[in-house]
Amino acid sequence: MELEGGERAKQHHHQQQPNTTFSSSAASSMKPINKGKAIAQYNADAGLMAEFEQSAVSGKSFNYSKSVIYAPQSVPEEKITAYLSRIQRGGLIQPFGCMIAIEEPTFRIIGYSENCFELLGLCLDSEDECKRLKGLIGIDARSLFTPASVASLTKAAASREISMLNPIWVYSRSTQKPFYAILHRIDVGIVIDLEPARLGDPALSLAGAVQSQKLAVRAIARLQSLPAGDIGVLCDTVVEDVQKLTGYDRVMVYKFHDDDHGEVVSEIRRSDLEPYLGLHYPASDIPQAARFLFKQNRVRMICDCHVNPAKVIQSDELKQPLCLVNSTLRSPHECHTQYMANMGSIASLAMAVVINGNDSSKLWGLVVCHHTSPRYVPFPRRYACEFLMQAFGLQLYMELQLASQLTEKKILRTQTLLCDMLLRDAPLGIVTQSPNIMDLVKCDGAALYYREKCWLLGVTPTESQVKDIAEWLLSTHGDSTGLSTDSLADAGYPGAALLGDAVCGMATARITSKDFLFWFRSHTAKEVKWGGAKHQPEDKDDGGRMHPRSSFNVFLEVVKSRSLPWEIPEINAIHSLQLIMRDSFQEMHSGSKVFVYAQQNDTDIQGVDELSSVAFEMVRLIETATAPIFGVDTAGLINGWNAKIAELTGLQAGEAMGKSLVNEIVHEDSRKVTENILRRALQGEEDKNVELKLKNFGLHRQNSVVYIVVNACTSRDYTNDVLGVCFVGQDITSEKVVMDKFIRLQGDYRAIIQSLNPLIPPIFASDENACCSEWNAAMENLTGWSRSKVIGKVLPGEIFGGLCQLKGQDTLTKFMIMLYQGITGHDTEKFPFGFSGRKGNFVEVFLTTNKRTDAEGNIIGCFCFLQVIVPDLDQAHKGNKQEDEEFFTKLKQLVYMRQEMKNPLNGIRFTHKLLETTGISENQKQFLETSDACERQILAIIDDMNLGSIEGGSMELRMEEFILGNVLDAVVSQVMILVRERNLQLVHEIPEEIKTLSLYGDQIRLQLVLSDFLLNVIHHAPPSGWVEISISPGLKLIQDGNEFIRLQFRMTHPSKGLPSTLIQDMFEGGNQWTTQEGLGLNLSRKLLNKMNGQVRYVREHNKCYFLVDLEIQTRKGRQKASQPE
After folding, report:
1. Which residue of 645, 649, 745, 800 shows the fewest CB atoms closer than 10 Å?
2. Would you say 49 and 7 are in contact if contact means Cβ atoms under 8 Å apart?
């Protein structure tokens, strides 16, 4: 499934590194990018592109399959540079349009495509004069277009978010022909891609462009209406909708697996075309450079793979070729066009599917369209497709989260059953009864090796081979607690060849010093099915030419003797069972099984403790909250009623208790809604932002009803049984009364919309083309933008996204969906929305849309009402100003401290260097090493003042070799004064083999992170109590020739633990942290993520602890990797 970018290439199957893990605790759910692997693939891609281009010069045939399998492992740096330059700055465009590059703000042309003369209707007196004058170089680009077009281009060029305004409709001054102008900024100016448009094209009008968006909204509505829990159905729906939008012969969803190879997981096609559904292809078919480009420019169209590209001519003053990364016209590499031609696909459209997690975005896959003849899709329709892909990414992320939760629940249920079996018959119950260990993770076979005997299940090695594997593990990996690999051969097991394809992958967990649990997997090809895999007799050159069948065969060759990789939840499940069994054996040897049962119920105990804590907090919240909060039991009778809801309704708590919510409290207009959310909540399905209409029981009431927006939360006891429902609400009575009157108003509404009455909420209106038609005084005050500045501008992109900055693309996508639903007549309520005003102040609101109709009932747009979540905006603005002044004062103090701290610190370091040269004892030397490590930590903190690089993950690690014990000594030394002040006992009995571990990583930042977590643990431990530090070594991992080890640090203290606000700061943070400690924990967590680690805070009965899981390279593994083959 070759896609351009770097174009073909892959390390051969010796280069594809095994996914081999040597055990550990829970692994991170979000894997960081493996830069070494990515660089290796860039190497291979660059080498193969050079080989392809050389074949064109020499006339020799380029053998695709052989080149992929035997790709070069390293290439000269100049080839890498040439490769990346060729992809990003190739100097060629597709000739279905033309391109000009201009200098800002003069509009002076600094580059253009040679077909500009033909498409724009330009001419010079002679070809010689054209060459002498360098064509269009240096002239004002505005002279090429009509005055109205110039005004549009000038307005766009002055915009901060220039791409938000695309496309701009322009007309050639010479021919009056229309074009879609698509603008984007580059390092030296602005690139303007010009795509010819037909005069009759409805998309040339704003209404036509909006119509494309409306088509996408209909498709999005279909996605949102699908039942949850089936990613396959979601993908099938997307390919159907994309085909309807674009008309291509074939539309597919490609999914990228964790090892970067691809798979076609959904397809719709013309009936006479060969199916690609189920096709797998090697990672190199869509190489790293292409994947990078797809995250930058998410829609890529190739109109005709047979047509010759147009050359880009540029000014001599430019130091390098123009960057075309974001150009809609960028020409594909010849290698890709040859691949397309071989597969009979003349035109294509590829769209990135990106999912955004908490801290990062990931290219999950692509939606790819093929056509057997040349095909052009106008930019507005392509933009609608991009809009659909953004919504698809949001929906897909939710489905992936749900699938992960379901997997974890299934694993947890299986573990619970296995624990029960262990209680009755340890350890044989987990292999002799049902369910058994094969049900824990996906596998073809499993085995228990216990006291030199074997119990085998499914497809496994023979008993003697299992014993041999156990002996190999003990002799080769005796210091690890287990291993997982997708290739026993690549992991170094000598007998792998004798196992054949039936047993390729293995996961193992050591349960005693000499006993193991095993899980086995057969080769990947067994799992792969593709309807088009059968070789056609007429395709005699399949083995060498670039074609999907060749890609499939190469993939099978690359994964030969390799199983599907073990996923992180599976490794975690195996490790959990391993810990339970280890404890079980310890208790068996001590004659008791009580502790095993306690281990089994750790989760339940933790749940009870957390539930008690939540219940306590909830009672306090209900009593003191300024928000209306009330609760009902399973019969729907009031059993909780706080002061705020009593104030709003005029019904005191004593009177409310025992009344029926539906029949006695809620207004009859809301009874059906209330019955529905009650029923759902009692079944565990919680609703948010539901509007309820309550009766007003007050004597001096202004309104007969009270409007609140509530979230329904299911209340449970410690056994997880449902006790009732808790409602947490927000009073919207005043806004609702005004809004209802406004919606019912039939005559002139200008008096109310422009009123300065504080009861009038911020209101704006959209016409049927998503342009702003109203913007009331409250909106002016809220945003800082006057009505005259926004009327007529496009709401999604130009106003919200341009003038009012949004947090990210996902926010814009959700806003567009909500707005277009309103325009098409589907009212929405309480949409959470946030944007930055003109002065940079961030505003959070609930947004409600209601359709607008004319006298005949035709929809002419929608009204949008904002309900500000921060109640007192004026006070908030004053607070912001004061906070800004305080911030700059503190910033100056920080700069001063940073500068002045270095001088005495340098003096201390110099003194230490002098001491090292004197005669000192070994103990004194160790003290100096610990002190030196702490000083380096201070220097690292001073040098890391750019918190943005930490938060954004762009900070570079300082890699070095170090001994783990030195880190521990430095960490402990930093807390000892506080330990003594609080009269605490610090327990840290770390085994010598752990202390002496030789590691390779960022020693100082690891030291900083661990000391931060430990300091917080000690600070919140009860006086005269205790704090314990323990370290558990886990599975080793062999990856890209390097050896890693997984370590788990546990820092435990008694009491109820750290405040929940502090933990919330650690995991959410951003600009919302409430304490200095919270900021420190948040940055430490992000530093840990950068180092391939993860932290959790666990509350258990009478104790709490930080769990830090870290995967770090060993020095031994690094030395092995550096040895020549």
Report:
1. 745
2. yes
Rounded CA separation 932/522 (Å): 51
**Inter-residue contact 179 to 185 (CB < 8 Å):** no
Q: What is the pLDDT of residues 442-501, one digit of tens each?
A: 899 999 998 889 999 999 999 999 999 999 988 888 777 788 888 888 888 888 888 887
Token digits for 742?
């406004």
What is the token pair recorded at 165?
A: 């305004």
Report the C-alpha gap between 565 and 505 in whole angstroms: 8
Is the CA virtual torsion 62, 63, 65, 68 positive or negative?
negative
Distance, in Å, from the CA atom of 959 to the CA atom of 969, rounded to the nearest integer, reads 19
- Rounded Cα distance between 625 and 634, Å, is 24
- 284 near 72, Cβ under 8 Å? no
Compute φ and ψ for 1027, nearest 5 degrees.
-140, 135
Cα 735 to Cα 762: distance, rounded to the nearest angstrom:
10
What DSSP assignment string belongs to 345-374?
--EEEEEEEEEE-SS-EEEEEEEEEEESS-
Element (H, E) at 1045: strand 1042-1054
Place of tokens 């990797």: 1121
Would you say the C-alpha torsion 279, 284, 287, 291 has a positive or negative sign? positive
Q: Check whether 606 has a pLDDT greater than 60.
A: no
Residues 28/1044, Cβ–Cβ less than 8 Å: no
| 609 neighbors 447 (Cβ within 8 angstroms) | no
Look at phi and psi of residue 658 and say left if phi exceeds 0, alpha if psi is from -120 to 50, else beta: left
Question: In terms of pLDDT, which residue wins out, 572 or 422?
Answer: 572
Question: Side chain identity at 1100, as an amino acid letter?
Answer: E
Residue 1092 clears pLDDT 90, i.e. is over it: no
pLDDT at 387 over 90: no
Q: Are strands 1042-1054 and 1093-1100 parallel, antiparallel or unpaired?
A: unpaired
- Our measurement of the distance from residue 754's CA atom to the centroid of its chain's CA atoms, rounded to an integer in Å, reads 42
Report whether 1026 contacts 1087 (CB < 8 A): no
Q: pLDDT higher for 819 or 132?
A: 819
Q: Are 251 and 275 in contact (CB under 8 A)?
A: no
What distance in Å separates the CA atoms of residue 632 and residue 638, rounded to the nearest whole number? 4
Query: Using an 8 Å Cβ cutoff, are 265 and 297 in contact?
Result: no
Question: 869 with 846: CB under 8 angstroms?
Answer: yes
Percent of the chain with pLDDT over 90: 15
d(CA 10, CA 46) in angstroms, rounded, equals 10
Mean of pLDDT over the chain = 75
Residue 834 · residue 845 · CB < 8 Å: yes
Torsion, Cα 76 82 87 88, to 10 degrees, reads 120
Task: Report whether 108 contacts 138 (CB < 8 A).
Answer: yes
Other CB atoms within 10 A of residue 53 CB: 17
What radius of gyration, in Å, describes the C-alpha atoms of the chain?
Answer: 33
pLDDT value at residue 604: 40
**Contact criterion met (CB below 8 Å) for 72 and 160:** no
pTM comes to 0.59
Number of C-beta neighbours around residue 630 at 10 A: 26
pLDDT digits (tens, 9 = 90+) for 654-711: 888 899 999 999 998 889 999 999 999 898 888 887 888 898 887 665 567 888 888 8
319 or 542, which is more confident: 319
Q: Is residue 859 within 8 Å of 768, Cβ to Cβ?
A: yes
Of 269, 244, 237, 289, residue with least CA distance to 345: 269
d(CA 97, CA 410): 54
Backbone angles phi, psi at 910, to 5 degrees: -65, -40
- Give the Cα separation of 982 and 868 in Å (integer): 46
CA dist 1019 to 26, 311, 967, 986, 1080, Å?
26, 66, 21, 12, 14
Give 1025: exposed, middle or buried? Use CB within 10 Å, 0-12, 13-18, 19+. middle
